[in-house]
Amino acid sequence: CDGRLRRVRTSTHHPVGLLLGRPQVRLLHQQCTSCGQTDSHEAYHQQVPPGGNYAYDVMVEAGVARFRDHRQDGEIQNDLHGRWGLRLPVSSIGALAHSFLDGLAAAHQAQAGALHRRLAEEGGYALHVDGTCEAGTDVLFAALAGPRGWVLEAGKMTTENALAIIPVVRRCVERFGEPLAVVRDLSQNIKNAIQEVLPETLDLICQYHFLENVGTKLCEKPYAKLTNALRRLKVRPALTSLRKDLVRWSRKGECLSAAQIDDLLRHPEQIADLDAVALRRFVAYVLLRWLDDFGTDLQGEYFPFDLPSLAFYRRGRRLGDWVDQLVALPEFPQRELSTLKTIARHLVSLREDPEVVAAAQRLEKAAALFEELRKVLRLSSRPQKQLLRGRSPAEPSEVAQKMKERLEQWRDRLRQRNLRERDADKRADQQTVLGYLEKYERELVGHVIQLEGREQPFVVSRTNNLAEHRFGSTKRGVRRKIGVNKLTRYVQAMRAEELLVANLSDPDYVDLVCDGSLAHLPAVIAKYWDLAQAIRAERLQSKTDHPLPTSKKQLRNPQLLDNLKQTVINIVQIISGKPQPSQAV
Question: In sequence order, what are the residues at sequence separation of 6 or more whose Cβ sits closer than 8 angstroms to the Cβ of residue 441?
Fold first, then answer.
């Protein structure tokens, strides 16, 4: 009101910042004599948050280092001291990192309109929804915009249930508009949530998740039978023990050099100058190493896309037949090459044991049909390259557009084969696949969407690799940071906003949310600090969505069992309507 200002009080502060350093700041608190409004110290609070001592640039530096670069708090502490001369306590770095997530989430929400407009300019987006967890942890759930890969919304929930998923999807639609399509796994809870919020939107299932379900249904039982049968025979442990014996014996005698081994494998006819005993041990050792290297026949994927027991069986049968042919030769020296005879004796059970043979033959039938379906969907692995979760199938619209026709033609041929099939196992497998195709025929196709006013159609990814990549890269970064493989404790403590950090790798996202440069992020967080504080207040609220919340303090009470015993006695009395003696329980 342009009234006269009078000084109310003076306060001294010692903020810490990358650009500020460690100055001593004296603030003059003034108040208008007419309206009573106090000075907000806007210039100072553009650098340092109200009530805080650390500047926004320190907050961003700590948050980016921790969540984007996956550095430990000690590393961040040393880096701040080495580069900026600032020595911060480790506890302060953790608090700054959490404040950074609050600020980033606030900036993301505040710029939702700009992100929405950019997605609309590109014709729209496909909503990829999925969740991840570790054994015994809450579910980290994310909604991403395809093909951009931006995380639009994220949340944590005790279980992946529809009531918890609906708010995440609804916030996504309210802030970023209705998607052109939704890509999800086969979870009924996610399906129910999508139908509740987006009943008219094209609903598609991830074809990899579809394949995983089909493959598990086809291969799970025969694979378990084969695995158990191989364990019963103990072929692999016996051959491993024999290989270790060969190594131990070789150390006691003359060994072949690396150059001799290389020459031998290149020119097997030139063995006259080699030690006979060392040569025989080497041949047996290499055969056993080749058998144990059956993992190279796999693609580095998980069951049912990889079948390790079947891969071992195949190599074992091949090696067994090869050795049997040599041992059966009339001139075969039984004494000198007794190790080869021992190998043949162990491997013969792979050919003669009826349970192993039956399980392997049954699994071969199921695996062949499963691989045939993968080829139809164009989701077969390439040699030495992981397709599953390794990359998203990048394909022109013509390929995706023909997928419906390919599936229909293959399904018709499979029906005709099923009518003629005499093998009961193959017929059952074919009926299983036909059942899946009929159940999910609408959700499997339709990935090409024609847009009004646009020459090029919108092509939806046929897999949920966007979400899988984000979860996978986040967990790899966590393993780098904490140095352990088991992530249960960290995932349980992880905040959903951590998934937003990877958005900063996209220049367009930085341009929209950070005013064109990551260097402007401190100023952006300062601009939306009130919203960040609201997010922080909600985060700090003591709440749980667990239906039966129980604390560890309660479980560790020495009187727990006695109290529960008395509770059961009281329940019995109420149900029976008459007192019961405590000894009855």
Answer: 407
